Write a sequence for this structure.
């Protein structure tokens, strides 16, 4: 599975962005998908995850109520809708695919990673 993240950019605080992650390869519909982020000088952290069927989602407390993860298995794409953005959301955002299929916040459960897309939120 190869993953290509896109949609990052510069936005003012309070604004919105929608990230996309397009997958290639077979069996996308069996993989859980997750979004992680890494801010400058910090470790990578979990943001959101969705199970293989899209029926279960899981969010970090810091984004709950502001971000929404979704997927379109027919288009092999996962999305992250980010609303009410804050300067502390500034980071490189990575999408990842996990073969176990369940939504998880644990990096070890993800087997494939995209290259990242930069989100910058100005105050």
């Amino acid at each position: 599975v190869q993953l290509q993240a896109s949609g990052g950019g510069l936005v003012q605080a309070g604004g919105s962005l929608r990230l996309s992650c397009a997958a290639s390869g077979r069996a996308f519909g069996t993989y859980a998908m997750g979004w992680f982020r890494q801010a400058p000088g910090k470790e990578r952290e979990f943001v959101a995850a969705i199970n293989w069927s899209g029926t279960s989602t899981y969010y970090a407390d810091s984004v709950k109520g502001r971000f929404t993860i979704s997927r379109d298995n027919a288009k092999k794409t996962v999305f992250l809708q980010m609303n009410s953005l804050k300067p502390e959301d500034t980071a490189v955002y990575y999408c990842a695919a996990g073969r176990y299929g369940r939504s998880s916040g644990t990096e070890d459960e993800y087997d494939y990673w995209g290259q990242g897309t930069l989100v910058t939120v100005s105050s």
Q: What stands out?
A: The chain has no helices and eleven strands. The CA atoms of residues 55 and 105 lie 16 Å apart.
